[in-house]
Amino acid sequence: MLQMDVDRRAGNPREGGGRSQSTSDSHGGSRSRREEIACGQAWSHPWRPLAGPALLERLRVTGRPRPKVDPEFVLRLRRHLDAELATGSTGEGHGDVDGAPGRGPDAGPGVGPVSGSRAGAPGPGGTFSRPSPLVVTRDRLTRVLACEAHYVATEFGERTPTPAMACGAMIDVLLRQLVCVGSIGDPMADGLAALSVDDHQRGLLSWIEQLPPRDREGLRAEVERQAEGLQLRWPALEPGWLPRTHEAIRAQLAGGSVELSARVDLAIGRPAEDEASVAVVEIKSGARRPGHRVDLHFYALVEAVRSWAPPFVVATYYTMTGELDVDPVTDELLVEAARRTLIGARALRRVADGIEPVRSAGTLCGWCAVLPECGPGRERLDGLGGRDTTRGEGR
Amino acid sequence: MTRSAVRTSELTAPPVIRIGEEARRRLRDRLLSRVSASIEGLPPGGQVEVTLPLLRRALVHPDRPAMDEEPFAWKPVFVRRSLGLAVVSACVTGRFRGPSEAVVPIATDAVAEWERTGWRTFHWEPWFSGLPSGARAVVLADAVGWATSLWTAFDWTAFAQVPQIGGADDHWTCPAPRTVRLKGRSELRVPLTAPGSVPRGRQRSDTPVALVSVSGGCPEQGWAEGLAYLALTAGLRSSSLPVPARVMGLWPDAGLHRTVDIDEGALEVAADRVARTVGVVVGARLSTAPPR
Questions:
Q1: With an 8 Å Cβ cutoff, is B63 touching chain A?
Q2: Neighbours of B181 (CB within 10 A)
Q3: Could you list the residue range(s) of the whole structural domain that residue A394 is in?
Q4: What is each CA distance from A309 to A33, A318, A328, A342, B123, in whole angstroms?
Q5: ipTM of the complex
Q6: pTM of the full predicted structure?
Q7: What is the distance between the alpha carbons of residues A299 and B188, in angstroms, rounded to a whole number?
């Protein structure tokens, strides 16, 4: 199902490639380097990353017909999720959203694609409280499916920043700038300025500011290299396509006791009418990993349940290499995403309820804080001679 | 019909009921008596400002209904609504093809106007103009996202009259023994006139209106009372304007909307919720007040 525009063997930047090798021009890049990147010569392999209209065309034309908007299918999907999640719930949050006598969005097939409800008069609210919903995110799903015990061990800890994390955060905001304003000035300065107005990035910003000069220069070089590629290759988006960045998408399930939540880096396209019309693009500054695909399938599911129409395509753009992975969205993809989400949501509920987490040996074991008391994890490492140098996703 | 067309049709349907002056007076009296009881414990000079976020928070966190008191500082989240509304307004007039095209010129014009005349259309102009370009881009991108969700929520060609986009908040001060101020904020005021009955752009003061309120996240417990609260505040604010006939809440993140047709019962429940909220706020203040 996955369609690729690139040769998977390609994509390794030329050794030593980077801003330090050439003279800067007014755009913060180098003319020769810019030309190299634009025509694909920055890589040793003859494969060239898509750019401009070709990249856009690859997003727009997936090789499959765009899915028809089918509220009945989405309704069946919703009902399945509702029923399965309600079965696994502890009884909270069922019934009407807040006791109001309006018809909820899940009331039945007559609702069609419009998810509103009407309340003639509000009910007597404030007489009971609904516990916070179980929030299912891409990251939580991935982690709990890899190993419940590892998920519990890392649930409340703050992630220690890394250069890769810093680069990713800055490339994220630089994409927003490029889409919204059309240009990037000094990538490092713009990226840091953007992080400075985001309360959630205070820790990361402080970490970057305290980096030793050499590490900071390394980060700067990588951010500039990736931002340069982004500027050269990323196509201008017509305002009429309604490009928006960091779009929050959520779907309430099981009477509000479960909430699927995501934030997509870039969404393009008007709301669907007869056929799916929205493209969802995730930007990755790191290396390609198989898990990125299922992350996006989760996004497709949330968008479908939220909007009663799926995106027609979900794609990952790798700013390090210029690779673009494009997944046309199909009913099968959504059903598989729903299946994975159900398994993950049940696991999340189990650990939230304090039930002993299942231990699953995997590539996280070598970094896991609970390894000393984990039988499966120790067995795995023993089998590997005590060293696990792999890292990846679990099931 | 598209979802936006269906939603527009639901919003602009003829009013179900009209709240008369007598009902408005009864509501006012009911609110006053209940709020007066709730606020008795507040020391002289104390005051409470009721807003939709406070109503929500008091229901979910009755032990700490007030937000943490942090000194005010501008953030992108404080700009996106006002800038987003201006963007939607500009798109409605057809000046731009979409929010991403409108946002930069509108923000730039606002800053230029402030620099030229000292007049702040939005209040955030000095802060925004002092930001480095990367931070400015975040502000603009947030506003584009917010505006796009409102812009795509409705079929704007289907409105018989152009809705009022943004505008001043509704305020009403309750003449209770302590000051209780109700503040309501809605994003759109939509005249409920039949197509062709009034020339586009004109609105009579007795034309019934529907309000639209945009919120983040998902509909929360008590959403119907929250929406009715906006009609209550607008209805108490001015006796010369009709009580809004309908309030629609939009939760774009969740792709949901909810509608409350306003009748006296809906307003009574909202008034009672206000009184309960005031009671919760007063209780929380008294429990944290240092002993005398």
A1: no
A2: 14
A3: 361-395
A4: 42, 26, 14, 20, 39
A5: 0.91
A6: 0.86
A7: 30
